[in-house]
């Protein structure tokens, strides 16, 4: 019912920046609600990086506010994550998140993820 294309990951030196993009496609009968990004490192649980509602309200994980900025283009069903002042601890697989809904039910979807590697 929903598919995403994640892009923008890669390798960067500490102190650098990256911008992730996630473009979602969904059948017209469904609605996209929240979008966002989570990240995961080996042996650890997935953690919230940032989420944004359809109306533009944002929520950040504790380690990211002030360094990362989430935004979205509702017309394109695309969410962006601008990541600044990256450090090696930010190395992880970043997963796009889409909350989508029918009339009665909400669903959570995570993309396969995109690797971000920060070298010291």
Mean pLDDT: 96
Task: For the record, give the distance between the C-alpha atoms at the N and C termini, rounded to a whole number.
Answer: 40 Å
Give the quaternary arrangement of the chains: single chain
Number of strands: 11
- The helix count comes to 0
What is the alpha-carbon Rg in Å? 14 Å
Helix content: under 10%
**Could you tell me the strand content as a percent range?**
over 45%
Listing every helix as H and every strand as E from the N terminus to the C terminus, the arrangement reads EEEEEEEEEEE
Low-confidence stretches: none
Shape: elongated
Give a quick account of the main beta sheet: strands, pairing sense, barrel closure.
7 strands, mixed
User: What structural class should be given to the helix and strand makeup?
Assistant: mainly beta
Question: Would you kindly provide a written description of the structure presented here, covering whatever features stand out?
Answer:
- This protein has 120 residues and is an all-beta fold.
- 0% of the residues lie in helices and 59% in strands.
- It has strands at 2-7, 10-13, 18-26, 31-40, 47-52, 58-60, 68-73, 78-83, 92-101, 106-110, 114-119.
- The strands form two sheets. Strands 2, 4, 5, 6, 9, 10 and 11 form a seven-stranded mixed beta sheet that branches. Strands 1-3-8-7 form a four-stranded antiparallel beta sheet, with no helix packed on it.
- A hairpin with a 4-residue loop joins strand 7 and strand 8 (78-83).
- The radius of gyration is 14 Å and the shape is elongated.
- The chain starts with a strand and ends with a strand.
